[in-house]
């Protein structure tokens, strides 16, 4: 037994017929735990390669703790001899109770039983690791329950010669080899023999004490082994005879061999506190200063201070600065402490075997680059408006880059028109330009500011494309602006498919069979050569825009025609549907130091865009050979492309072999980078920015540990699951199929110590109405009613064709009895994931047996449920959530807090990244200091995006300025609020009553701020309040008065404030009577919803019935109200801050569009241009009255409508709104968030839409929000500001033809206005009088065909489509109208589209004033 500090661990051991086992230690410290792993007094932090660890003779007489909690995922291969007669088991990984991997012959469980090795599960391995780290070594013993502990004495392995116990007899390998190598076996690993034989060596293995004769060999190799090197006196004496000569033969030692060679030279060795064990130890080579990642397993080290004069240090550990290698100054003698041959870890230095056999100790590293001149002023390009495929992750990356540059005292200039971002806030960049990211505007800024450096990789594809264009135009060269980080030439290599393929062929790597095409004809010919099905992709596009699978020529032509609207080059790829999709995040500096920070595996197979897929980090189903094969390829590719900074590489891996293809390399930070950064705790964007300045990676500190280097590969001791969120229900006629083009608007990241725990957490994070992996959500009724055949037909179709709800069909299928093998055939989701999902469903069935009375449930069943990720609400089948909570607390089944520290507890860490888990017995931190808790906004969705994160960040920063310590609860990896340096404690966990309450009870904060996170925190306000939570700001009762539509309407009536006629819904009949009385159209409004979810305008009884049912589904526990919808009224947005009901700041914005377009979708202007002083005074009176009545403390938002000199209140939100950042950054001197926390020029904001990604969605706006982001620009007048804002969303000014299709607007003649502007000189306006929204009066088919043809041929530069009822109503027409077709085609072919009458008027005025 090695030594350790722990006592009385009761854990099931799979060896002794499921008996209990105790681990008893010398100091008798009591220690209980629950989790999954192996217990030991030596820890190993590698995430793959357990068979090598378990078959390593160096672990002789030790108990091994594997810190990674998911062990055994891919079984054990056949124990058969491979090359040179060596067993293959040492080449592959070992994994859990199931053997799903293609190379596996048996499970880990079976293999351990056969070998007689006890495997203990149910242990908090992180806790054990920390004890070993802190206390160093102590003796320990395993005792089977029932046996007296005193009857078994402690056994000290340090008192034995362990080398003698593991050393073998004489053995010869590869007898036909040309170079004779004698290997001294002190406990040799097979891979050392294999590495020598593969290089043509004839290897003679001799025992540890075998006499050595220089005539018997051309080179001498000394192996690794266990224990203290001082015990190997015979070996030392034998070595001295062959080493201490004038002309010795080459000698190479590894690990123990390194220590023995050092002792031969007269140096000293010493016992380390706990040694170095793991796959990510960084070692710096003396001379070149390059850093290499190595695998290690040793408890003794060499003292470099005792080396003789003719010896020198070869490698030094970058973390603890211990010696990692020595070399003779003139003789061919050297040794290393690490394992360059280690198959389960990095093989970055396996070339040392070549050095040994060639006896030339040279490192063919990259030469040092020229002296790097540090820039004084750097321009950073942002990403512009948020859209599908390009969301808040670029706010996070840009903010980190600015912080990194400021630390180096470099002046920063930012261009970003997105007003809702943190990076555009005061106090970050030195200057911010709210301008479109187009070559024209960026050139103007460069000309004005004269920066000497520019960063292109922190603003997504928008910034990258703009930077490439600026380089081609010669702008950067003209103004001496150097591109920092990855050169533009490298960016173009990754973006241009043809060049990329050629570059990969140069290093003998393969991309998926693919051809680039510049026309439809070329694409069709390429598809014929490759064979259908094929994948069509746009080059230079983000988020798979314009991509899809084509099974035949017709589908291909349709896809390619559409793709050419977005790009000039189309890629035709051979379909690899069903293969695994794997990603690696790679970092490289200018000195060629290279690491992989995180690898990720898509649960969904290839064919679904990675942004649409459920992603797991680290990968779960790769064996160690595959893991390191792809890692080594990633490093080789990144070096060859010359990337400096961070990039992402994606692979397709055959699920039945080791065959792989490179899909693509992204030479910029991406959504995957944000996920990898948050999943590991490694600040990727911050490090990438520093590397762009020419700083070597080993010189950067790991910001989490503050002591180790950033040149390392993180070790995880948890599992991360990312799930995307789609808001497809907000769009009419949208296709729910998911595939190679991104439709998701946001994503969540959940952390757990098991896949099941993280997976169920993530499902709840995506949708607060979902309880977890719920089989009832999709097809329960259908499963109950249908015959078995019908069930299989129904589910099989939904499983084969992925949709946004497929995961719940999977739950229903498992519940209905589908086998894992059948589901694998239908979905191609790896069996390992399906088995894990089945575990959840099986336990759910067990829970159902207690559904009459939860109190009779055994505590272990509930504990297991919590470890599988079940929420209290999920367990509460017959009782309430609170009853389950009480039961759980009585049974002491409580969550514990674990840290994300990047090093799996190997080093002390000062990290604020935290998560809750039920796998463990001890929290990683103490709860002694008081904090203020801020609840974030959760997942980005349509209606809740980066602006709420901006508010939460502003809130935290202000609290810190006021001297408070802060806690943030959020689970969105794309946000700045979840950054490593924003708050004192960050809980990456659910925003639900259960979890927030658990954190509250542990932390006991001074109070909780809900109003900064949007709607989600408000929804749990009353539940928290009932449990006596201290809510800071407006009282939850008053929040309820505003959110509950019935209470709010009644309150307005009481205080005499005008509102549209309203009625609470009691039944459909009375609702219809109300509508008949006030007259249609009427508005259906549910309570407690965000971005107008399920809010609709009804024009008839049939509309009303449809909308009422959807509103009731959304608002089950809260009332639904119906009110008269007032057409053609002006809408006014008011953002205000109050203290105890007294309003202290007001900002008024007006909508350009008429009322009925959601305020998040509307174009806002502040200060308002069309509101007179009298109306402004009345608005202020109303705001003061409502603030007083609701006793508001903090922010609130009010919406009013004005028509015929009358003001009516629509709604009030007692929280920050989407317009909050907009008004904060534009109203001089008032920073509304800061004002809110203390008490607890002209500008245009244009919403950004992502209709081009949502196949089939109708492009109309109404009372429910559909925009994904927004931009804002300043101007001297409204026209200049509007033009800049439109250009920022990607809008292009038309140069030739405009299609003008107007419905019932006969009064306003836009074609006359356009003609009057003398614009006809360059633009031909084609007017078609065509009432699109009516089925009758359709024009003849000939005319329709012509218009469609014009659109396909890109004849029009712009489409103005004014539908007849564009006043808030979104008619659920079952038929596809001509207007819908025109709007849809305009979006599909990238033609700028305007659909609002007032926006058209403003656009015409802009053209007249600004462009002529």
Automatic annotation (TrEMBL):
Record has Repeat as a keyword: yes
Enzyme class: ligase
Domain of life of the organism encoding this protein: Eukaryota
UniProt KW keywords: Amino-acid biosynthesis, Arginine biosynthesis, ATP-binding, Ligase, Manganese, Metal-binding, Nucleotide-binding, Phosphoprotein, Repeat
InterPro entries reported in the protein's UniProt record: ATP-grasp (IPR011761), CarbamoylP_synth_lsu_oligo_sf (IPR036897), CarbamoylP_synth_ssu (IPR006274), CarbamoylP_synth_ssu_N (IPR002474), CarbP_synth_ssu_N_sf (IPR036480), Class_I_gatase-like (IPR029062), CPAse_ATP-bd (IPR005479), CPSase_dom (IPR005483)
Catalytic activity field: hydrogencarbonate + L-glutamine + 2 ATP + H2O = carbamoyl phosphate + L-glutamate + 2 ADP + phosphate + 2 H(+); hydrogencarbonate + NH4(+) + 2 ATP = carbamoyl phosphate + 2 ADP + phosphate + 2 H(+)
SUPFAM superfamilies reported for this sequence: Carbamoyl phosphate synthetase, large subunit connection domain, Carbamoyl phosphate synthetase, small subunit N-terminal domain, Class I glutamine amidotransferase-like, Glutathione synthetase ATP-binding domain-like, Methylglyoxal synthase-like, PreATP-grasp domain
Pathway involvement of the protein, from the record: Amino-acid biosynthesis; L-arginine biosynthesis; carbamoyl phosphate from bicarbonate: step 1/1
A cellular component term, taken from the record's GO annotations: carbamoyl-phosphate synthase complex
GO-annotated biological processes: 'de novo' pyrimidine nucleobase biosynthetic process; 'de novo' UMP biosynthetic process; glutamine metabolic process; L-arginine biosynthetic process
Gene3D superfamilies per UniProt: 3.40.50.20, 3.40.50.880, ATP-grasp fold, B domain, Carbamoyl-phosphate synthase small subunit, N-terminal domain, Carbamoyl-phosphate synthetase, large subunit oligomerisation domain, Methylglyoxal synthase-like domain
Residue ranges constituting the ATP-grasp domain according to the UniProt record: 501-693, 1049-1241
Coiled-coil zones: none
EC nos: 6.3.4.16, 6.3.5.5
Presence of keyword Repeat: yes
GO molecular function, one term: metal ion binding
Ranges of residues in domain MGS-like: 1291-1412
Family from the record: Belongs to the CarB family.
Name of this chain's protein: Carbamoyl phosphate synthase arginine-specific large chain
Source species taxonomy: Eukaryota, Metazoa, Chordata, Craniata, Vertebrata
């Amino acid at each position: 037994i090695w030594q350790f500090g722990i006592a009385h661990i009761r854990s099931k051991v799979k060896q002794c017929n499921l008996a209990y086992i105790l681990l008893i230690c010398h100091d008798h410290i009591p220690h209980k735990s629950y989790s999954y792993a192996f217990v030991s007094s030596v820890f190993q932090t590698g995430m793959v390669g357990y068979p090598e660890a378990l078959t390593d003779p160096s672990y002789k007489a030790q108990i091994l703790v594997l810190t990674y909690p998911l062990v055994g995922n891919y079984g054990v291969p056949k124990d058969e001899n491979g090359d040179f007669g060596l067993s293959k088991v040492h080449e592959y990984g070992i994994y859990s109770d199931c053997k799903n991997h293609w190379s596996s012959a048996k499970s880990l469980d079976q293999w351990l039983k056969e070998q007689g090795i006890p495997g203990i599960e149910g242990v908090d391995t992180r806790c054990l690791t920390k004890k070993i780290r802190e206390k160093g070594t102590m003796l320990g013993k395993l005792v089977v329950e029932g046996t007296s502990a005193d009857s078994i004495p402690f056994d000290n392995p340090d008192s034995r010669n362990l080398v003698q116990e593991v050393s073998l007899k004489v053995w010869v390998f590869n007898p036909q080899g040309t170079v004779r190598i004698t290997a001294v076996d002190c406990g040799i690993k097979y891979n050392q023999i294999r590495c020598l034989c593969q290089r043509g060596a004839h290897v003679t293995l001799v025992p540890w004490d075998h006499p050595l004769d220089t005539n018997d060999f051309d080179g001498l190799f000394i192996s690794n082994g266990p224990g203290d090197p001082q015990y190997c006196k015979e070996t030392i004496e034998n070595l001295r005879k062959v080493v201490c000569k004038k002309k010795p033969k080459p000698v190479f030692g590894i690990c123990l061999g390194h220590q023995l060679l050092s002792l031969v030279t007269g140096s000293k060795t010493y016992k380390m506190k706990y040694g170095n064990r793991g796959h990510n130890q960084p070692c710096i080579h003396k001379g070149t200063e390059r850093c290499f990642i190595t695998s290690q397993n040793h408890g003794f080290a060499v003292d470099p201070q005792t080396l003789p004069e003719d010896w020198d240090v070869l490698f030094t550990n970058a973390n603890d600065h211990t010696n990692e290698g020595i070399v003779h100054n003139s003789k061919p003698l050297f040794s290393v402490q690490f394992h360059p041959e280690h198959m389960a870890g990095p093989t970055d230095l396996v070339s040392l075997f070549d050095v040994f056999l060639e006896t030339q100790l040279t490192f063919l590293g990259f030469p040092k680059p020229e002296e790097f001149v540090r820039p004084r002023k750097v321009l950073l390009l942002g990403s512009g408006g948020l859209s599908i495929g390009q969301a808040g992750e670029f706010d996070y990356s840009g903010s980190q880059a600015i912080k990194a540059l400021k630390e180096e005292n470099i002046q920063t200039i930012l261009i970003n028109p997105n007003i809702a971002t943190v990076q555009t806030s005061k106090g970050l960049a030195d200057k911010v330009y709210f301008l479109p990211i187009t070559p024209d505007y960026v050139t103007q800024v460069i000309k004005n500011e004269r920066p000497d450096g520019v960063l292109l990789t922190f603003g997504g594809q928008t910034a990258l494309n703009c930077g490439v264009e600026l380089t081609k135009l010669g702008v950067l060269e003209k103004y001496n602006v150097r591109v920092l980080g990855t050169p533009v030439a490298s960016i173009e290599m990754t973006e241009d498919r043809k060049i990329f393929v050629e570059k990969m062929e140069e290093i003998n790597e393969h991309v998926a069979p693919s051809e680039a095409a510049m026309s439809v004809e070329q694409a069709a010919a390429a598809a014929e050569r490759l064979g259908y099905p094929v994948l069509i992709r746009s080059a230079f596009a983000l988020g798979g825009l314009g991509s899809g699978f084509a099974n035949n020529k017709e589908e291909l032509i349709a896809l390619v025609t559409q793709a050419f609207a977005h790009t000039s080059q189309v890629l035709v790829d051979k379909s690899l549907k069903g293969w695994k999709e794997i990603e690696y995040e790679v970092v490289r500096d200018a000195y060629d130091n290279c690491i992989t920070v995180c690898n990720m595996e898509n649960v969904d197979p290839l064919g679904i865009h990675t942004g649409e897929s459920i992603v797991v980090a680290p990968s779960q189903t790769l064996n160690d050979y595959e893991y390191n094969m792809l890692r080594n390829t990633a490093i080789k590719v990144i070096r060859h492309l010359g990337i400096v900074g961070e990039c992402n590489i994606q692979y397709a891996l055959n699920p039945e072999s080791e065959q792989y293809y490179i899909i693509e390399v992204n030479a910029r930070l991406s959504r995957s980078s944000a996920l990898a950064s948050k999943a590991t705790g490694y600040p990727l964007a911050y490090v990438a920015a520093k590397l762009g300045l020419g700083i070597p990676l080993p010189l950067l500190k790991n910001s989490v540990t503050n002591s180790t280097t950033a040149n390392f590969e993180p070790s995880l001791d948890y599992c991360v699951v990312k799930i995307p969120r789609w808001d497809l229900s907000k769009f009419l006629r949208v296709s729910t199929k998911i595939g190679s083009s991104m439709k998701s608007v946001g994503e969540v990241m959940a952390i757990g110590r098991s896949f099941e725990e993280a997976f169920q957490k993530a499902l709840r994070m995506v949708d607060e109405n979902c309880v977890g992996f719920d089989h009832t959500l999709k097809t329960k009724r259908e499963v109950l009613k249908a015959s078995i055949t019908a069930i299989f037909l129904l589910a099989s179709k939904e499983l084969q064709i992925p949709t946004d709800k497929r995961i719940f069909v999977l739950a229903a299928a498992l519940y209905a009895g589908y086998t894992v093998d059948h589901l694998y055939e239908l979905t191609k989701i790896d069996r390992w994931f399906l088995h894990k999902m089945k575990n959840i469903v099986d336990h759910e069935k067990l829970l159902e047996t207690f559904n009459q009375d939860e109190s009779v449930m055994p505590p272990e069943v509930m504990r297991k449920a919590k470890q599988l990720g079940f929420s209290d609400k999920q367990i509460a089948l017959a009782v309430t959530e609170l009853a389950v909570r009480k039961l759980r607390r009585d049974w002491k089944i409580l969550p514990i807090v674990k840290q994300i520290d990047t090093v799996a507890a190997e080093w002390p860490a000062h990290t604020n990244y935290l998560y809750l888990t039920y796998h463990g017995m001890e929290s990683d931190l103490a709860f002694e200091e008081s904090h203020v808790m801020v609840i974030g906004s959760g997942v980005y969705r349509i209606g809740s995006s980066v602006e709420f994160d901006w508010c939460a960040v502003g809130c935290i920063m202000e609290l810190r300025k006021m001297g408070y310590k802060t806690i943030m609860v959020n689970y969105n990896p794309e946000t700045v609020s979840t950054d490593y340096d924003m708050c004192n404690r960050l809980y990456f966990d659910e925003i639900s009553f259960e979890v927030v309450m658990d954190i509250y009870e542990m932390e006991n904060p001074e109070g909780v701020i809900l109003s900064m996170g949007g709607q989600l925190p408000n929804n749990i306000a009353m539940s928290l309040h009932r449990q006596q939570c201290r809510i800071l700001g407006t009282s939850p009762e008053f929040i309820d008065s505003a959110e509950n539509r019935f209470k709010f309407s009644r309150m307005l009536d009481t205080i005499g404030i005008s509102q549209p006629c309203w009625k609470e819904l009691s039944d459909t009949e009375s609702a219809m009577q109300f509508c008949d009385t006030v007259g249609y159209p009427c508005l259906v409004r549910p309570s407690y919803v965000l971005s107008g979810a399920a809010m609709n305008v009804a024009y008839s009884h049939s509309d009303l019935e449809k909308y009422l049912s959807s509103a009731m589904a959304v608002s089950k526990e809260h009332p639904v109200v119906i009110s008269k919808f007032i057409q053609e009224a002006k809408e006014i947005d008011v953002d205000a801050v109050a203290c105890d009901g007294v309003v202290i700041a007001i900002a008024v914005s007006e909508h350009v569009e008429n009322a009925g377009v959601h305020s998040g979708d509307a174009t806002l202007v502040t200060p308002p241009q069309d509101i007179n002083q009298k109306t402004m005074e009345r608005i202020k009176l109303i705001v003061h009255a409502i603030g007083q009545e609701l006793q508001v403390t903090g922010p609130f938002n009010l919406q009013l409508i004005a028509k015929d000199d009358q003001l009516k209140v629509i709604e009030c939100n007692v929280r920050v709104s989407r317009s909050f950042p907009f008004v904060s950054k534009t109203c001089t001197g008032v920073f509304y968030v800061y004002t809110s926390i203390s008490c607890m020029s002209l500008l245009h904001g244009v919403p950004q839409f992502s209709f081009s990604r949502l196949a089939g969605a109708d492009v109309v706006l109404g009372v429910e929000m559909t925009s994904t982001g927004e931009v804002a620009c300043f101007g001297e007048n409204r026209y200049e500001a509007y033009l800049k804002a439109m250009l920022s969303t990607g809008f292009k000014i038309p140069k030739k033809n405009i299609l003008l299709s107007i419905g019932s607007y006969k009064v306003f003649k836009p074609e006359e206005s356009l003609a009057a502007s003398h614009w006809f000189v360059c633009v031909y306006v084609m007017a078609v009088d065509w009432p699109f929204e009516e089925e009758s009066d359709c024009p003849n088919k000939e005319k329709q065909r012509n218009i469609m043809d014009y659109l396909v041929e890109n004849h029009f530069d712009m489409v103005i489509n004014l539908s007849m009822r564009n006043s808030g109503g979104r008619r659920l027409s079952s038929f596809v109208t001509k207007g819908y077709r025109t709007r849809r085609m305009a979006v599909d072919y990238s033609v700028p589209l305007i659909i609002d009458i007032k926006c058209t008027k403003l656009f015409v005025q802009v053209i007249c004033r600004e462009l002529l």
